[in-house]
Each structure stands twice: as C-alpha cells, then as structure tokens.
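Working notes for the structural subgroup meeting. M.R. asked for a predicted model of this chain before we commit to crystallization trials. I am recording the input and output together here so anyone reviewing the notebook later can reproduce the run.

Input as submitted:
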Amino acid sequence: MKKESSRNEWSGKSRGGALGYLSFVYIIKTFGLTAAYALLSIVVIYFIPFAPKATSSVWYFSRKILGNSRFDSLIFLYKNYFSLGVALIDKTAVASGKADEFRFEFNEPEEVKKILNDKRGAIIIGAHFGNWEVGAPFFDKYGKDMRVVMVDAEYQKIKMILEREKRVDTFKVIPISEDIFSNIFEIRDALADGAYVAIQGDRLTSSAKNETVKFMGADAQFPLGPFIMAARFGFPVVFYYAVRTGFKHYSFHFSLCPVSGVSSQKRVFEKQILEEYVKSLEKVVKIAPEQWYNYYKFWI
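Returned structure, recorded in token form:
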C-alpha cells in the first residue's frame, strides 16, 4: 500500500456550487430543458481557463491516458465540462418531476435481478461517472430503501437545494466525514435492515487508505474504504453505472461482483473486490470517457 501525495487527493468539493444548481433549477422551471442546455453550451467555455486544476486533470487524462492530440484534447475538455453540466441539468430535471421526458434502458443480468429482488441488503458501488442519480428512482420498483453514503459537505449542499425547492430526495443519505468508517454502524444497520447502500469507489481523500492498481493502462490510486466495507460485511456487491447515450437518453449498466460474500482472508478479499470494480469501471469509461468526472490528479 502506498501513501498518497496531496496531488492525488480529491479536495472534498465537486464542481458546481449551490448557486449553479439553483440557477439551473430556475432556468428549467422557467424556460425548459432545451434552454438550459443552450445556456450550458456557452457557460462551459468559462471553466476551461478559470478552473485550472480541473482543466489540468482533464488535459492529462486526454493526452497521457487516452493518447489524444492537442486539438482533440481541447475538444475533449469542452465535451467533458459540457457532459458534467448536462448531468447536473438532467438529475435536477428528474428530481423536479420531469423523468417522463427521458428514455431509460436497463442492462440487468439475471443474477443482478435476483440480488435486487432478495430481502437481504446489498452494497452498490458506483463512480463519479455518467449520472448515477438519474437512475435512483429505478430502485423504487424493488420496494427497498436506498441509502447513499456521501461526504457531509456535498450532502449539505444538496440538502440546502432540496429545502429551497421544497422537494424530497429520491434516496436517503448517510453523511460521513472524509473517512468512510466515521458512520460505519449506520451503514451496517441499513444493510442488516435489507436496504441498498450505495457508495462511490473512485475518489481518494486525504484520510483514505488506498491501493495502487492499473486503470486505463496506468497506475492509479483507489480508496480501499468501500472495498474493506464490502469484504467485512459479506453482503452481495453490485457495480452500477448510468451512461448518457443520447439526448435525454440513458443506459444503466449493472454487474454482480463475482467475489462478493464472506472470506476468512479479509485483506486478500477486499483487494479482489477492488480489482473487479476497476475492471467494470474501465469498461464503461472506455464507452464514454468524457463522462468521467474526477477533477484531480488521479494517476500516479
């Protein structure tokens, strides 16, 4: 296990503040989704020079990992920021009751359906990729609670917006500090009660233990917390991603982790779950690399 440097840590804050969320809420409600997309196409130009750390990380991803030319990397920068804005607009629209304006396709293998229909709890590991939140209402059909493990600073921002708009979220949040184990008993109890517990597995923070693995052909550090939790609790693990495949069109990808369960070799087991997760994440990132939103130096 390698100690991460400060360059490879997420700051704890995602792109787009509360004001940005509220601005798009207003535009969607007043002028509709098309107007929001049109405004976004202009706004994203601002972020390229005025968000230098994020721009540097996207540029590195495009040039060094994807092997794009300088010109193609400039286009990739715009597409990445635009995709992030579309994700923000779409999840706001779905939360505002406009889900019927979207088309959703679900890739649910039979083994995943069996797990989701089971009375036992399940751990759902996703990523800062695509737009997982637009699919949260999908889990309602199974009649089970969805609990999302979220860094408290991010949760407070979303909570403020929901209260401002007098809306109820489609899932319950388990707020944590940067350390996933800060609320481990609430996570354990939710699983024991048969709930889904969803967590992102691709963002490293200063207090997180990490493991270096190959991702997209280069060494990268992933947080061990979600995978330690999955190995210790012994509940089924499902990998889940939402990929935007067109205008108001999403495809949801599910896969069952083949090594979920209980093992006496905890350290080996958590690394195996991590490796399976990285393989699943790499598959979807290759489908739509512009929809991956980790805006810090991810690769070593």
